[in-house]
Protein backbone atom coordinates (compact mmCIF):
# COMPACT_ATOMS: atom_id res chain seq x y z
CA UNK A 1 0.00 0.00 0.00
CA UNK A 2 1.80 3.06 -1.19
CA UNK A 3 1.95 6.43 0.51
CA UNK A 4 -1.19 5.92 2.54
CA UNK A 5 -1.78 9.55 2.18
CA UNK A 6 -2.35 9.89 5.80
CA UNK A 7 -1.38 13.36 4.75
CA UNK A 8 -2.54 15.32 7.76
CA UNK A 9 -4.89 12.50 8.50
CA UNK A 10 -8.04 13.84 9.94
CA UNK A 11 -9.57 14.60 13.23
CA UNK A 12 -10.57 10.97 13.18
CA UNK A 13 -8.80 7.61 13.39
CA UNK A 14 -6.50 6.58 10.58
CA UNK A 15 -7.78 4.52 7.70
CA UNK A 16 -8.75 0.98 8.56
CA UNK A 17 -6.73 -1.84 7.10
CA UNK A 18 -8.05 -4.12 4.40
CA UNK A 19 -9.27 -6.54 7.02
CA UNK A 20 -12.79 -6.04 8.30
CA UNK A 21 -11.58 -5.69 11.89
CA UNK A 22 -8.42 -3.58 11.86
CA UNK A 23 -6.08 -3.84 14.84
CA UNK A 24 -6.43 -1.00 17.34
CA UNK A 25 -2.85 0.11 16.75
CA UNK A 26 -3.87 1.40 13.30
CA UNK A 27 -6.59 3.68 14.63
CA UNK A 28 -4.27 6.43 15.85
CA UNK A 29 -1.31 6.95 13.56
CA UNK A 30 1.44 8.79 15.40
CA UNK A 31 3.95 11.26 14.03
CA UNK A 32 7.22 12.15 15.74
CA UNK A 33 8.56 14.67 13.24
CA UNK A 34 5.78 17.26 13.56
CA UNK A 35 6.50 18.08 17.24
CA UNK A 36 9.63 16.01 18.08
CA UNK A 37 7.41 13.83 20.29
CA UNK A 38 4.81 11.18 19.34
CA UNK A 39 1.44 12.83 18.69
CA UNK A 40 -1.60 11.60 16.74
CA UNK A 41 -1.54 12.83 13.15
CA UNK A 42 -5.25 13.60 13.53
CA UNK A 43 -4.33 16.24 16.15
CA UNK A 44 -1.53 17.92 14.20
CA UNK A 45 -1.94 21.28 12.52
CA UNK A 46 1.03 20.52 10.26
CA UNK A 47 0.99 19.07 6.75
CA UNK A 48 2.53 15.61 6.93
CA UNK A 49 2.56 12.37 4.93
CA UNK A 50 3.53 9.01 6.41
CA UNK A 51 4.84 6.11 4.32
CA UNK A 52 4.54 2.88 6.30
CA UNK A 53 6.41 -0.43 6.16
CA UNK A 54 3.37 -1.90 4.39
CA UNK A 55 3.60 0.80 1.73
CA UNK A 56 7.28 0.03 1.18
CA UNK A 57 6.64 -3.70 0.91
CA UNK A 58 3.81 -3.17 -1.60
CA UNK A 59 5.87 -1.06 -4.03
CA UNK A 60 8.87 -3.45 -4.21
CA UNK A 61 11.25 -0.61 -5.19
CA UNK A 62 14.97 -0.38 -4.42
CA UNK A 63 15.33 3.22 -3.22
CA UNK A 64 13.60 5.73 -0.95
CA UNK A 65 13.56 8.23 -3.83
CA UNK A 66 11.17 5.99 -5.78
CA UNK A 67 8.81 5.93 -2.78
CA UNK A 68 8.84 9.72 -2.54
CA UNK A 69 7.74 10.29 -6.14
CA UNK A 70 4.06 9.86 -5.25
CA UNK A 71 4.10 12.20 -2.24
CA UNK A 72 1.97 15.36 -2.72
CA UNK A 73 3.98 18.56 -3.04
CA UNK A 74 7.30 16.73 -3.52
CA UNK A 75 9.22 16.41 -6.80
CA UNK A 76 12.08 13.97 -7.43
CA UNK A 77 14.68 14.67 -10.14
CA UNK A 78 17.35 12.08 -11.03
CA UNK A 79 20.27 12.52 -13.44
CA UNK A 80 20.06 9.07 -15.01
CA UNK A 81 19.53 5.61 -13.52
CA UNK A 82 20.44 3.97 -10.23
CA UNK A 83 23.14 5.78 -8.26
CA UNK A 84 22.98 9.09 -10.15
CA UNK A 85 22.47 12.42 -8.37
CA UNK A 86 18.91 12.50 -7.01
CA UNK A 87 17.34 15.71 -5.67
CA UNK A 88 13.99 16.44 -4.04
CA UNK A 89 12.08 19.73 -4.21
CA UNK A 90 9.50 20.22 -1.47
CA UNK A 91 6.77 22.73 -2.29
CA UNK A 92 9.03 24.49 -4.78
CA UNK A 93 11.91 25.04 -2.34
CA UNK A 94 15.47 24.31 -3.44
CA UNK A 95 16.65 20.74 -2.92
CA UNK A 96 19.11 21.83 -0.19
CA UNK A 97 16.25 23.45 1.75
CA UNK A 98 14.97 20.06 2.94
CA UNK A 99 16.51 18.56 6.08
CA UNK A 100 16.85 14.76 5.92
CA UNK A 101 17.02 12.72 9.13
CA UNK A 102 17.59 9.01 9.75
CA UNK A 103 16.46 8.17 13.29
CA UNK A 104 17.15 11.77 14.25
CA UNK A 105 20.60 11.86 12.60
CA UNK A 106 21.09 14.83 10.28
CA UNK A 107 22.46 13.29 7.07
CA UNK A 108 22.75 16.39 4.85
CA UNK A 109 26.28 16.57 3.46
CA UNK A 110 28.26 19.61 4.76
CA UNK A 111 30.77 19.20 1.90
CA UNK A 112 28.21 19.44 -0.93
CA UNK A 113 27.76 22.87 -2.56
CA UNK A 114 24.43 23.59 -0.87
CA UNK A 115 24.78 21.21 2.11
CA UNK A 116 21.90 19.12 0.79
CA UNK A 117 21.29 15.37 0.73
CA UNK A 118 21.67 13.17 -2.34
CA UNK A 119 19.03 10.41 -2.26
CA UNK A 120 20.91 8.37 -4.89
CA UNK A 121 22.24 5.73 -2.48
CA UNK A 122 19.52 5.50 0.19
CA UNK A 123 17.89 2.08 -0.17
CA UNK A 124 14.72 0.88 1.59
CA UNK A 125 16.55 -1.74 3.67
CA UNK A 126 15.46 -1.97 7.33
CA UNK A 127 13.18 1.08 7.08
CA UNK A 128 10.00 1.07 9.19
CA UNK A 129 8.40 4.30 8.00
CA UNK A 130 9.09 7.69 6.44
CA UNK A 131 7.56 11.01 7.54
CA UNK A 132 7.47 14.02 5.21
CA UNK A 133 6.78 17.34 6.97
CA UNK A 134 6.14 20.34 4.72
CA UNK A 135 6.76 24.04 5.23
CA UNK A 136 9.38 26.04 7.21
CA UNK A 137 10.53 23.92 10.19
CA UNK A 138 13.56 25.85 11.50
CA UNK A 139 11.89 26.35 14.91
CA UNK A 140 12.36 22.71 15.90
CA UNK A 141 15.05 21.61 13.45
CA UNK A 142 17.35 24.57 12.77
CA UNK A 143 18.74 26.12 9.64
CA UNK A 144 18.58 23.29 7.07
CA UNK A 145 14.79 22.90 7.27
CA UNK A 146 13.37 26.04 5.65
CA UNK A 147 11.50 23.96 3.07
CA UNK A 148 10.58 20.95 5.18
CA UNK A 149 11.82 17.76 6.84
CA UNK A 150 12.02 14.16 5.65
CA UNK A 151 12.68 11.70 8.47
CA UNK A 152 13.37 7.98 8.01
CA UNK A 153 12.85 5.58 10.92
CA UNK A 154 14.53 2.17 10.99
CA UNK A 155 12.94 -0.98 12.34
CA UNK A 156 13.01 -1.84 16.04
CA UNK A 157 13.41 -5.47 17.00
CA UNK A 158 10.98 -7.10 19.38
CA UNK A 159 9.47 -10.50 20.15
CA UNK A 160 10.74 -13.86 18.98
CA UNK A 161 13.86 -13.92 16.76
CA UNK A 162 13.05 -13.64 13.04
CA UNK A 163 15.33 -14.08 10.07
CA UNK A 164 14.88 -13.27 6.43
CA UNK A 165 16.65 -13.64 3.11
CA UNK A 166 15.69 -12.21 -0.26
CA UNK A 167 17.08 -12.46 -3.78
CA UNK A 168 15.88 -10.75 -6.94
CA UNK A 169 17.04 -9.86 -10.41
CA UNK A 170 15.89 -8.48 -13.71
CA UNK A 171 16.44 -5.91 -16.44
CA UNK A 172 19.72 -4.08 -17.09
CA UNK A 173 21.70 -6.92 -15.51
CA UNK A 174 20.32 -6.00 -12.10
CA UNK A 175 20.39 -8.24 -9.04
CA UNK A 176 20.03 -7.76 -5.31
CA UNK A 177 20.74 -10.03 -2.35
CA UNK A 178 19.72 -9.18 1.20
CA UNK A 179 19.29 -10.60 4.65
CA UNK A 180 17.92 -9.44 7.99
CA UNK A 181 17.49 -10.52 11.57
CA UNK A 182 15.43 -9.03 14.39
CA UNK A 183 13.99 -9.91 17.74
CA UNK A 184 14.10 -9.21 21.43
CA UNK A 185 14.97 -10.81 24.73
CA UNK A 186 13.73 -9.50 28.04
CA UNK A 187 14.70 -5.80 27.96
CA UNK A 188 16.80 -5.91 24.77
CA UNK A 189 15.64 -5.50 21.18
CA UNK A 190 17.72 -5.66 18.01
CA UNK A 191 17.42 -5.46 14.23
CA UNK A 192 20.03 -5.73 11.50
CA UNK A 193 19.86 -5.83 7.73
CA UNK A 194 22.42 -5.99 4.93
CA UNK A 195 22.12 -5.97 1.16
CA UNK A 196 24.18 -5.92 -2.02
CA UNK A 197 22.71 -4.28 -5.13
CA UNK A 198 24.35 -4.50 -8.57
CA UNK A 199 23.20 -3.18 -11.94
CA UNK A 200 24.90 -2.98 -15.34
CA UNK A 201 22.58 -0.01 -15.90
CA UNK A 202 22.01 2.07 -19.00
CA UNK A 203 23.76 5.15 -20.28
CA UNK A 204 23.41 8.08 -17.87
CA UNK A 205 23.64 10.26 -20.99
CA UNK A 206 20.47 9.34 -22.88
CA UNK A 207 20.95 6.39 -25.29
CA UNK A 208 18.34 7.93 -27.59
CA UNK A 209 20.87 10.69 -28.24
CA UNK A 210 23.59 8.30 -29.44
CA UNK A 211 25.13 7.31 -26.09
CA UNK A 212 25.50 3.54 -25.77
CA UNK A 213 28.03 2.94 -23.00
CA UNK A 214 26.20 1.41 -20.02
CA UNK A 215 26.86 3.03 -16.66
CA UNK A 216 26.87 0.44 -13.91
CA UNK A 217 26.16 0.78 -10.21
CA UNK A 218 26.96 -1.12 -7.01
CA UNK A 219 25.57 -0.49 -3.55
CA UNK A 220 26.29 -2.16 -0.22
CA UNK A 221 24.05 -1.20 2.71
CA UNK A 222 24.25 -2.28 6.35
CA UNK A 223 21.76 -1.04 8.93
CA UNK A 224 21.62 -2.00 12.62
CA UNK A 225 19.74 -0.90 15.71
CA UNK A 226 19.69 -1.97 19.37
CA UNK A 227 17.29 -0.87 22.14
CA UNK A 228 17.82 -1.62 25.83
CA UNK A 229 15.40 -0.88 28.67
CA UNK A 230 18.11 -0.56 31.30
CA UNK A 231 15.71 0.48 34.11
CA UNK A 232 11.98 0.97 34.31
CA UNK A 233 12.51 4.68 33.66
CA UNK A 234 15.74 4.58 31.61
CA UNK A 235 16.21 3.31 28.07
CA UNK A 236 19.26 3.35 25.83
CA UNK A 237 19.47 2.81 22.10
CA UNK A 238 22.06 2.90 19.34
CA UNK A 239 21.66 3.13 15.55
CA UNK A 240 24.20 2.81 12.74
CA UNK A 241 23.77 2.81 8.96
CA UNK A 242 26.47 2.41 6.32
CA UNK A 243 26.38 2.78 2.52
CA UNK A 244 29.17 2.09 0.07
CA UNK A 245 28.46 2.79 -3.59
CA UNK A 246 30.30 2.77 -6.92
CA UNK A 247 28.67 4.60 -9.82
CA UNK A 248 29.78 5.02 -13.42
CA UNK A 249 29.12 8.55 -14.68
CA UNK A 250 29.01 10.45 -17.97
CA UNK A 251 30.43 13.87 -18.78
CA UNK A 252 27.06 15.54 -19.36
CA UNK A 253 23.59 15.02 -20.72
CA UNK A 254 23.20 14.99 -24.49
CA UNK A 255 24.93 13.73 -27.65
CA UNK A 256 28.55 12.68 -27.31
CA UNK A 257 28.54 12.66 -23.50
CA UNK A 258 29.54 9.01 -22.92
CA UNK A 259 32.66 8.60 -20.78
CA UNK A 260 33.88 5.05 -20.04
CA UNK A 261 36.40 6.19 -17.40
CA UNK A 262 34.29 8.51 -15.25
CA UNK A 263 33.37 7.08 -11.83
CA UNK A 264 32.42 8.15 -8.33
CA UNK A 265 32.80 6.10 -5.16
CA UNK A 266 30.87 7.13 -2.09
CA UNK A 267 30.88 6.08 1.56
CA UNK A 268 28.28 7.22 4.08
CA UNK A 269 28.22 6.48 7.82
CA UNK A 270 25.36 7.62 10.06
CA UNK A 271 25.36 6.78 13.77
CA UNK A 272 23.50 7.79 16.92
CA UNK A 273 23.33 6.85 20.56
CA UNK A 274 20.54 8.06 22.83
CA UNK A 275 19.42 7.83 26.43
CA UNK A 276 15.85 8.50 27.59
CA UNK A 277 15.07 9.16 31.26
CA UNK A 278 11.54 9.50 32.67
CA UNK A 279 11.15 11.34 35.98
CA UNK A 280 8.26 12.06 38.37
CA UNK A 281 5.90 9.44 36.95
CA UNK A 282 6.49 10.53 33.31
CA UNK A 283 5.95 14.20 34.10
CA UNK A 284 9.43 15.07 32.79
CA UNK A 285 11.18 13.14 30.05
CA UNK A 286 14.79 13.89 29.12
CA UNK A 287 16.49 12.63 25.96
CA UNK A 288 20.20 13.07 25.39
CA UNK A 289 21.43 12.05 21.94
CA UNK A 290 24.79 12.20 20.25
CA UNK A 291 24.84 11.73 16.49
CA UNK A 292 27.52 11.58 13.84
CA UNK A 293 27.33 11.60 10.05
CA UNK A 294 30.05 11.35 7.42
CA UNK A 295 29.81 11.42 3.62
CA UNK A 296 32.89 10.81 1.49
CA UNK A 297 32.92 11.22 -2.29
CA UNK A 298 35.87 10.32 -4.52
CA UNK A 299 35.56 11.14 -8.22
CA UNK A 300 37.99 9.80 -10.84
CA UNK A 301 38.12 10.51 -14.56
CA UNK A 302 41.05 9.37 -16.69
CA UNK A 303 41.66 10.67 -20.21
CA UNK A 304 40.41 8.63 -23.17
CA UNK A 305 40.37 9.16 -26.97
CA UNK A 306 37.12 11.13 -26.82
CA UNK A 307 37.84 13.06 -23.62
CA UNK A 308 41.08 14.50 -22.28
CA UNK A 309 39.57 15.81 -19.05
CA UNK A 310 41.19 14.51 -15.84
CA UNK A 311 39.52 14.52 -12.44
CA UNK A 312 40.78 13.03 -9.18
CA UNK A 313 38.89 14.93 -6.49
CA UNK A 314 37.75 13.91 -3.04
CA UNK A 315 35.33 15.54 -0.60
CA UNK A 316 34.40 14.61 2.94
CA UNK A 317 31.66 16.16 5.04
CA UNK A 318 31.26 15.38 8.74
CA UNK A 319 28.92 16.49 11.49
CA UNK A 320 28.79 15.87 15.25
CA UNK A 321 25.62 16.92 17.07
CA UNK A 322 24.61 16.86 20.74
CA UNK A 323 20.91 17.34 21.48
CA UNK A 324 19.37 17.54 24.96
CA UNK A 325 15.58 17.46 24.62
CA UNK A 326 13.12 17.85 27.51
CA UNK A 327 9.40 17.05 27.44
CA UNK A 328 7.31 18.29 30.37
CA UNK A 329 3.65 17.25 30.63
CA UNK A 330 2.08 19.01 33.63
CA UNK A 331 -1.46 18.02 32.52
CA UNK A 332 -2.95 15.71 29.93
CA UNK A 333 -3.79 18.74 27.76
CA UNK A 334 -0.52 20.70 27.94
CA UNK A 335 2.93 19.57 26.72
CA UNK A 336 6.10 21.65 26.66
CA UNK A 337 9.08 20.57 24.54
CA UNK A 338 12.35 22.47 24.93
CA UNK A 339 16.01 21.75 24.42
CA UNK A 340 19.56 22.73 23.56
CA UNK A 341 21.61 21.60 20.57
CA UNK A 342 25.29 22.01 19.75
CA UNK A 343 26.74 20.84 16.46
CA UNK A 344 29.98 21.16 14.55
CA UNK A 345 30.34 20.39 10.88
CA UNK A 346 33.48 20.04 8.75
CA UNK A 347 34.28 20.13 5.06
CA UNK A 348 37.46 18.43 3.90
CA UNK A 349 38.68 18.37 0.30
CA UNK A 350 41.92 17.71 -1.50
CA UNK A 351 41.72 21.13 -3.18
CA UNK A 352 41.21 23.38 -0.16
CA UNK A 353 41.94 23.57 3.58
CA UNK A 354 39.59 22.07 6.14
CA UNK A 355 36.81 24.43 7.22
CA UNK A 356 34.26 24.07 10.00
CA UNK A 357 31.28 25.76 11.60
CA UNK A 358 29.78 25.46 15.08
CA UNK A 359 26.08 26.13 15.66
CA UNK A 360 24.39 26.30 19.06
CA UNK A 361 20.61 26.29 19.22
CA UNK A 362 17.92 26.76 21.88
CA UNK A 363 14.33 25.80 21.08
CA UNK A 364 10.94 25.43 22.73
CA UNK A 365 7.38 24.59 21.73
CA UNK A 366 4.19 24.51 23.78
CA UNK A 367 1.33 22.26 22.62
CA UNK A 368 -2.11 22.73 24.18
CA UNK A 369 -5.29 20.71 23.57
CA UNK A 370 -8.39 22.41 24.88
CA UNK A 371 -12.09 21.45 24.92
CA UNK A 372 -11.12 18.25 23.05
CA UNK A 373 -11.58 20.18 19.80
CA UNK A 374 -8.71 22.64 19.54
CA UNK A 375 -5.00 21.80 19.39
CA UNK A 376 -2.62 24.77 19.36
CA UNK A 377 1.17 24.76 19.18
CA UNK A 378 3.59 27.69 19.29
CA UNK A 379 7.37 27.53 19.23
CA UNK A 380 10.45 29.74 19.04
CA UNK A 381 14.15 29.07 18.42
CA UNK A 382 17.40 31.00 18.83
CA UNK A 383 20.46 29.91 16.81
CA UNK A 384 24.02 31.16 17.16
CA UNK A 385 25.95 30.30 13.98
CA UNK A 386 29.72 30.77 13.98
CA UNK A 387 29.73 32.44 10.55
CA UNK A 388 26.13 33.57 10.02
CA UNK A 389 25.51 35.14 13.43
CA UNK A 390 22.37 35.05 15.60
CA UNK A 391 18.94 34.18 14.20
CA UNK A 392 15.46 33.84 15.76
CA UNK A 393 12.69 31.80 14.12
CA UNK A 394 9.16 30.91 15.25
CA UNK A 395 6.14 28.86 14.18
CA UNK A 396 2.49 28.38 15.19
CA UNK A 397 -0.06 25.72 14.20
CA UNK A 398 -3.75 25.22 14.84
CA UNK A 399 -6.04 22.20 14.40
CA UNK A 400 -9.81 22.32 14.89
CA UNK A 401 -11.52 18.94 15.31
CA UNK A 402 -15.20 18.44 14.44
CA UNK A 403 -15.88 14.75 15.14
CA UNK A 404 -19.63 15.07 14.48
CA UNK A 405 -18.95 15.64 10.77
CA UNK A 406 -15.60 13.88 10.48
CA UNK A 407 -13.84 17.16 9.74
CA UNK A 408 -10.51 18.68 10.65
CA UNK A 409 -9.54 22.26 9.87
CA UNK A 410 -5.88 23.18 10.19
CA UNK A 411 -3.35 25.88 9.51
CA UNK A 412 0.19 27.00 10.30
CA UNK A 413 2.58 29.90 9.85
CA UNK A 414 6.33 29.86 10.33
CA UNK A 415 9.68 31.44 9.54
CA UNK A 416 13.02 29.83 8.74
CA UNK A 417 16.60 30.55 7.83
CA UNK A 418 19.47 28.63 6.24
CA UNK A 419 23.09 29.61 6.80
CA UNK A 420 25.48 29.55 3.83
CA UNK A 421 27.17 26.19 3.37
CA UNK A 422 30.87 25.77 4.02
CA UNK A 423 31.43 25.33 0.29
CA UNK A 424 29.55 28.53 -0.51
CA UNK A 425 31.63 30.40 2.05
CA UNK A 426 35.12 28.99 1.49
CA UNK A 427 35.42 27.29 -1.93
CA UNK A 428 38.54 28.60 -3.72
CA UNK A 429 38.50 30.47 -7.01
CA UNK A 430 38.35 28.31 -10.13
CA UNK A 431 38.86 28.63 -13.86
CA UNK A 432 35.74 30.81 -14.16
CA UNK A 433 36.69 33.18 -11.33
CA UNK A 434 35.67 33.46 -7.67
CA UNK A 435 33.50 30.78 -6.05
CA UNK A 436 33.24 31.11 -2.25
CA UNK A 437 32.08 34.32 -0.59
CA UNK A 438 32.65 34.87 3.14
CA UNK A 439 30.24 37.82 3.18
CA UNK A 440 27.15 35.75 2.33
CA UNK A 441 24.03 36.29 4.44
CA UNK A 442 21.62 33.49 5.46
CA UNK A 443 18.71 32.58 3.21
CA UNK A 444 15.28 33.23 4.73
CA UNK A 445 11.80 31.83 4.31
CA UNK A 446 8.31 32.35 5.64
CA UNK A 447 5.30 30.28 4.82
CA UNK A 448 1.70 29.60 5.71
CA UNK A 449 -0.86 26.94 4.90
CA UNK A 450 -4.54 26.26 5.52
CA UNK A 451 -6.27 22.95 4.95
CA UNK A 452 -9.20 20.67 5.56
CA UNK A 453 -9.54 16.88 5.94
CA UNK A 454 -12.87 15.08 5.66
CA UNK A 455 -14.11 11.51 6.05
CA UNK A 456 -17.34 9.75 5.09
CA UNK A 457 -18.87 6.27 5.17
CA UNK A 458 -17.19 5.04 8.35
CA UNK A 459 -13.88 6.42 7.07
CA UNK A 460 -13.99 4.42 3.86
CA UNK A 461 -13.80 7.73 2.01
CA UNK A 462 -11.14 10.29 2.93
CA UNK A 463 -10.14 13.44 1.16
CA UNK A 464 -8.26 16.60 1.96
CA UNK A 465 -6.86 19.79 0.50
CA UNK A 466 -4.13 22.23 1.54
CA UNK A 467 -3.44 25.68 0.15
CA UNK A 468 0.12 26.83 0.83
CA UNK A 469 2.27 29.88 0.21
CA UNK A 470 6.05 30.20 0.76
CA UNK A 471 8.27 33.24 0.30
CA UNK A 472 12.06 32.86 -0.01
CA UNK A 473 14.44 35.80 0.18
CA UNK A 474 18.18 36.41 0.20
CA UNK A 475 18.65 33.21 -1.79
CA UNK A 476 22.20 32.23 -2.62
CA UNK A 477 22.98 31.78 -6.30
CA UNK A 478 26.15 31.16 -8.31
CA UNK A 479 27.19 33.68 -10.94
CA UNK A 480 30.09 33.12 -13.32
CA UNK A 481 32.80 35.68 -12.68
CA UNK A 482 31.36 36.61 -9.29
CA UNK A 483 30.86 33.36 -7.37
CA UNK A 484 28.14 32.80 -4.79
CA UNK A 485 26.08 35.89 -3.99
CA UNK A 486 22.80 36.77 -2.26
CA UNK A 487 20.79 37.93 -5.25
CA UNK A 488 17.65 35.88 -5.63
CA UNK A 489 14.18 35.76 -4.18
CA UNK A 490 11.35 33.41 -5.03
CA UNK A 491 7.90 32.36 -4.02
CA UNK A 492 5.79 29.24 -4.34
CA UNK A 493 2.08 28.84 -3.88
CA UNK A 494 -0.25 26.02 -4.66
CA UNK A 495 -2.79 23.38 -3.78
CA UNK A 496 -2.20 19.84 -2.53
CA UNK A 497 -5.11 17.39 -2.62
CA UNK A 498 -5.61 13.72 -1.87
CA UNK A 499 -8.44 11.21 -1.85
CA UNK A 500 -8.68 7.65 -0.56
CA UNK A 501 -11.61 5.30 -1.18
CA UNK A 502 -12.06 1.79 0.17
CA UNK A 503 -15.20 0.53 -1.59
CA UNK A 504 -14.44 -3.09 -0.64
CA UNK A 505 -12.41 -4.62 2.17
CA UNK A 506 -9.92 -5.97 -0.36
CA UNK A 507 -9.62 -2.86 -2.57
CA UNK A 508 -8.17 0.58 -1.76
CA UNK A 509 -7.89 3.42 -4.27
CA UNK A 510 -5.83 6.56 -3.70
CA UNK A 511 -5.14 9.65 -5.72
CA UNK A 512 -3.25 12.92 -5.33
CA UNK A 513 -2.99 16.12 -7.30
CA UNK A 514 -0.62 19.03 -6.64
CA UNK A 515 -0.62 22.43 -8.31
CA UNK A 516 2.54 24.45 -7.60
CA UNK A 517 3.08 27.92 -9.02
CA UNK A 518 6.69 29.06 -8.55
CA UNK A 519 8.27 32.35 -9.57
CA UNK A 520 11.72 33.85 -9.22
CA UNK A 521 12.42 37.58 -8.91
CA UNK A 522 12.11 37.86 -12.71
CA UNK A 523 8.63 36.29 -12.56
CA UNK A 524 9.91 33.15 -14.32
CA UNK A 525 8.87 29.64 -13.30
CA UNK A 526 11.57 28.04 -11.14
CA UNK A 527 13.67 25.38 -12.83
CA UNK A 528 12.86 21.67 -12.44
CA UNK A 529 9.50 22.30 -10.71
CA UNK A 530 6.36 21.17 -12.55
CA UNK A 531 3.16 23.14 -12.07
CA UNK A 532 1.05 19.99 -12.22
CA UNK A 533 1.71 16.61 -10.67
CA UNK A 534 -0.57 13.71 -9.80
CA UNK A 535 -0.54 10.07 -8.80
CA UNK A 536 -2.98 7.18 -8.60
CA UNK A 537 -2.54 3.97 -6.61
CA UNK A 538 -4.65 0.85 -6.34
CA UNK A 539 -4.14 -1.92 -3.75
CA UNK A 540 -5.90 -5.19 -4.45
CA UNK A 541 -5.81 -8.24 -2.19
CA UNK A 542 -6.76 -10.95 -4.67
CA UNK A 543 -6.64 -13.79 -2.15
CA UNK A 544 -5.29 -14.20 1.34
CA UNK A 545 -1.93 -15.04 -0.25
CA UNK A 546 -1.87 -12.71 -3.30
CA UNK A 547 -1.50 -8.95 -3.43
CA UNK A 548 -1.34 -6.63 -6.45
CA UNK A 549 -0.41 -2.95 -6.66
CA UNK A 550 -0.71 -0.35 -9.43
CA UNK A 551 1.05 3.03 -9.35
CA UNK A 552 0.48 5.74 -11.95
CA UNK A 553 2.61 8.89 -11.82
CA UNK A 554 1.95 11.92 -13.98
CA UNK A 555 4.30 14.91 -14.07
CA UNK A 556 3.70 18.13 -15.98
CA UNK A 557 6.15 20.16 -18.06
CA UNK A 558 9.22 21.73 -16.39
CA UNK A 559 11.77 24.40 -17.28
CA UNK A 560 15.50 23.63 -17.40
CA UNK A 561 18.57 25.75 -18.02
CA UNK A 562 22.19 24.75 -18.59
CA UNK A 563 24.65 27.51 -19.36
CA UNK A 564 22.89 29.53 -22.11
CA UNK A 565 20.58 26.69 -23.20
CA UNK A 566 17.02 26.76 -21.89
CA UNK A 567 14.52 23.98 -22.48
CA UNK A 568 11.01 23.05 -21.49
CA UNK A 569 10.57 19.33 -20.98
CA UNK A 570 7.18 17.86 -21.87
CA UNK A 571 5.11 16.12 -19.22
CA UNK A 572 4.85 12.36 -18.94
CA UNK A 573 2.84 9.50 -17.44
CA UNK A 574 4.52 6.37 -16.06
CA UNK A 575 2.73 3.20 -14.93
CA UNK A 576 4.39 0.80 -12.47
CA UNK A 577 3.06 -2.60 -11.38
CA UNK A 578 4.02 -4.79 -8.42
CA UNK A 579 2.73 -7.93 -6.76
CA UNK A 580 3.54 -10.85 -4.50
CA UNK A 581 2.26 -14.35 -3.80
CA UNK A 582 2.85 -16.18 -0.53
CA UNK A 583 3.53 -19.86 -1.25
CA UNK A 584 3.61 -20.81 2.42
CA UNK A 585 4.51 -19.28 5.77
CA UNK A 586 8.21 -19.20 4.82
CA UNK A 587 8.33 -18.44 1.08
CA UNK A 588 6.95 -15.48 -0.89
CA UNK A 589 7.44 -14.76 -4.59
CA UNK A 590 7.29 -11.16 -5.80
CA UNK A 591 7.93 -8.99 -8.82
CA UNK A 592 7.41 -5.61 -10.39
CA UNK A 593 7.32 -3.92 -13.79
CA UNK A 594 8.65 -0.37 -14.09
CA UNK A 595 7.37 1.90 -16.86
CA UNK A 596 4.95 -0.80 -17.97
CA UNK A 597 3.91 1.01 -21.18
CA UNK A 598 7.49 1.92 -22.16
CA UNK A 599 6.99 5.68 -21.90
CA UNK A 600 9.86 7.76 -23.34
CA UNK A 601 10.53 10.71 -21.05
CA UNK A 602 13.25 12.82 -19.43
CA UNK A 603 13.61 14.04 -15.84
CA UNK A 604 16.71 16.07 -16.76
CA UNK A 605 17.47 17.13 -20.35
CA UNK A 606 19.88 14.72 -22.04
CA UNK A 607 19.91 12.14 -19.22
CA UNK A 608 18.49 8.65 -19.57
CA UNK A 609 15.50 7.08 -17.85
CA UNK A 610 14.42 3.46 -17.62
CA UNK A 611 12.45 1.89 -20.44
CA UNK A 612 10.02 -0.92 -19.61
CA UNK A 613 11.83 -3.15 -17.10
CA UNK A 614 10.93 -6.24 -15.13
CA UNK A 615 12.26 -7.60 -11.84
CA UNK A 616 11.39 -10.69 -9.82
CA UNK A 617 12.56 -12.56 -6.76
CA UNK A 618 11.73 -14.48 -3.62
CA UNK A 619 11.76 -13.85 0.12
CA UNK A 620 12.35 -16.45 2.84
CA UNK A 621 11.30 -15.71 6.42
CA UNK A 622 11.66 -17.97 9.42
TrEMBL record:
Residues 41-149 form the TonB-dependent receptor plug domain. Transmembrane segments: none annotated. Residues 261-595 form the TonB-dependent receptor-like beta-barrel domain. The keyword Iron-sulfur does not apply. It comes from Methylomarinovum caldicuralii. Keywords: Cell outer membrane, Ion transport, Membrane, Signal, TonB box, Transmembrane, Transmembrane beta strand, Transport. This is Vitamin B12 transporter. Belongs to the TonB-dependent receptor family. Pfam families: Plug (PF07715), TonB_dep_Rec_b-barrel (PF00593). CDD domains: ligand_gated_channel. A motif (TonB box) lies at residues 29-35. One of its GO terms (biological process) is cobalamin transport. Its main location: membrane. InterPro entries: Beta-barrel_TonB (IPR000531), Beta-barrel_TonB_sf (IPR036942), Plug_dom (IPR012910), Plug_dom_sf (IPR037066), TonB-dep_rcpt-like (IPR039426), TonB_box_CS (IPR010916).
